[in-house]
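Example record used in the benchmark description.
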Amino acid sequence: MRIVNATETVMAWLAAGLLTLTGILLTYEVVARYFFNAPTIWAAELSQLCLIWACPVAMGWALSNGRHIRVTALTAQMPARLRQLAEILSLLVILCFSVFVLIYGYDIFFDSFERGRTTGTMLDLPAWLPEASVPVGFLLLILSCLTCLWRTLQGDMTSAGGAEE
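Model output (structure tokens):
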């Protein structure tokens, strides 16, 4: 579990860095385009790539730290045991969905990798670069989900993303 927690933290910092880099790239593009009339062919596409990777790699951290959107109108009224059961059920749904997306996301990524597809943009990056974010992100989410599920089954609702409101 420590390895998963450390990985989640590293990925959260990576996502933060990618979002910061997105801001820098877009600021550079705006300044280059509007003040120097010299637009780049790379800033917008690389900023999109940063955004595409930032969100999936941070999903596991968001789950483990209870930072995703939660509707607790009903669960807040439940007794602790029933709330634990609801948390287990929601984690199982997330787990099943994540496995499904991982399998199909990997198929899409691998197909593009094998065929050598490109983005068809000015940079013409390999298409698998953004597509790989889906299987990587959902694999990380599966690991986080399993860790949260284990903690919840042990009765630890706060560290499993089921923070008491």
